[in-house]
Every structure is written in structure tokens, then in C-alpha cells.
Specification:
There is one protein chain. This protein is an alpha+beta fold. The chain is built from five helices and 18 strands. The strands form five sheets. The chain has a six-stranded mixed sheet with strand order 4-3-15-8-9-12. A hairpin with a 6-residue loop joins strand 1 and strand 2. GO terms for molecular function: fumarylpyruvate hydrolase activity. Keywords: Hydrolase, Metal-binding. Its EC number is 3.7.1.20.
Length: about 230
């Protein structure tokens, strides 16, 4: 065994529905503007090829977590998403074979510092600081494909303090899961442990400290998080 200068960090992981086992997370990829209505609400209205951004693996937190309101923002947004968990490695995966690389599915929230994202867009700079911050990728328990199948339609929703803000259907995905997996694998070799957040429906909006966020995807699962006070 190699010696390390510092102790290796803990392995990031997500709960597995109905099991004490956990799914070790390797990388997190996210798809932008994958629902037409959401693209329109952000001022875009084209079926462009999907584009990706990433979050660090340790941005993932379990359902039930309290997430401190992050620094550097006054406009933190919720984005509910279907999450794909990769279980089989692949590079340049044909679309017809893409679903065979999926281990399971979950429900995630892509937390976004929208004001920082808007600033980055205007300056033609990377989005990292708006997307890839601490605890920015809460994810509910993953459900294995053997139990979920491959969802192609079904309600995807999010509520803030019980008030529904996002309410869509997976059938509205511009690029379905097979396309997303195949296209992502053109740029990187996907590996077991990779998570892919597949995009959010319309209705994204700001949350404040003290807000309770709940959401779900029919046939896949639910998620619940609370936005806490900023870290001192």
C-alpha cells in the first residue's frame, strides 16, 4: 500500500434504496438546458446539442441533509433532476447500447448560485463557481434498474415549503437518457460510479435559509433537504 502525505479523503457516496450498501461516486456530470420550457425561461429556445458541466464528487449529500446557505451569493436556485448512475465503463458508447451502462436512477437537486452564473455568462467565463460548490449536489437514494426500469416518462417535481415550483414530465426531456449517456461518452470515458444529472424542467427559483425543499420523480424516488443558515 502506498504512503500518502495526507490522509486520503473519505469516498463520496450516495445511499441505495432498500439497502445498507452505498454507491461510491467517482464524478458528477450535469446537462444544461435539457427541457425546452426551462431553456426558454433562461432566454434560450433552440434544440442545441447537449452541453455538460461538472461538480466535484464530494458535492453530493444525502436526502435529509441540512445545507448551509452558500457564500458569495444572494440568489441560490433549486433545479430538480433525474440522476443517472453509471455502472459499466464505456467510451464512445452507441446510443443503442447506452442504457446497458446504467446501474440505476435517483432524484437530485442541482443547487446553483444564479447570480454568479449570470456574471460568468456575461464575462464569457466558466460556470464553476456557480455550480461546483460545497454540498451543491444533494441526491436521494439510488434505485437499481432492476427495480426502476429505464424511466421514459413520469412526473418530476419540486416544492419549496410545500408550494410546488417545478412540475414537469420526463417525456419532455429534449435529450433522453440514452442520448445523454452516449453523447457524454464521446468526450470522456464513463466509469462505474459516475453520476449524470440530466437537466431540470421549468420553474427554477430562489430559496432562502430555513426553506424546506422536497421533490421526486415518479417510479424513482424522492428527496428532501433544508437550507440552513450561512456558515460562520
Amino acid at each position: 500500500m502506498p504512503d500518502f502525505v495526507l490522509p486520503p479523503p473519505a469516498i463520496a457516496s450516495v445511499a441505495v434504496a432498500g439497502s445498507a450498501e452505498r454507491f461510491a461516486v467517482r464524478r458528477i456530470f450535469c446537462v444544461g438546458r435539457n427541457y425546452a420550457a426551462h431553456a426558454r425561461e433562461l432566454g434560450n429556445d433552440e434544440r442545441d446539442p447537449p452541453f455538460f458541466f461538472s461538480k466535484p464528487a464530494d458535492a453530493v449529500v444525502d436526502s435529509g441533509a441540512e445545507i448551509p446557505y452558500p457564500p458569495l451569493t444572494s440568489n441560490l436556485h433549486h433545479e430538480i433532476e433525474l440522476v443517472v448512475a453509471i455502472g459499466k465503463a464505456g467510451f464512445r458508447i452507441p446510443r443503442a447500447e447506452a442504457l446497458a451502462h446504467v446501474w440505476g436512477y435517483g432524484v437530485g437537486v442541482d443547487l446553483t448560485r444564479r447570480d454568479l452564473q449570470d456574471q460568468a455568462k456575461k464575462a464569457a467565463r466558466p460556470w464553476d463557481w456557480s455550480k461546483a460548490f460545497d454540498r451543491s449536489a444533494p441526491c436521494g437514494p439510488l434505485l437499481a434498474v432492476a427495480k426502476s426500469g429505464h424511466p421514459e416518462k413520469g412526473r418530476i417535481w419540486l416544492a419549496v415549503n410545500g408550494d410546488v415550483k417545478q412540475d414537469g414530465d420526463l417525456a419532455e426531456l429534449i435529450w433522453p437518457v440514452a442520448d445523454v449517456v452516449s453523447i457524454c461518452s464521446e468526450a470522456v470515458g464513463l466509469q462505474p460510479g459516475d453520476l449524470v444529472f440530466t437537466g431540470t424542467p421549468a420553474g427554477v427559483g430562489a430559496v432562502q435559509a430555513g426553506d424546506r425543499i422536497t421533490g421526486g420523480v415518479d417510479g424513482v424516488g424522492t428527496i428532501e433537504i433544508t437550507i440552513g443558515q450561512p456558515r460562520s
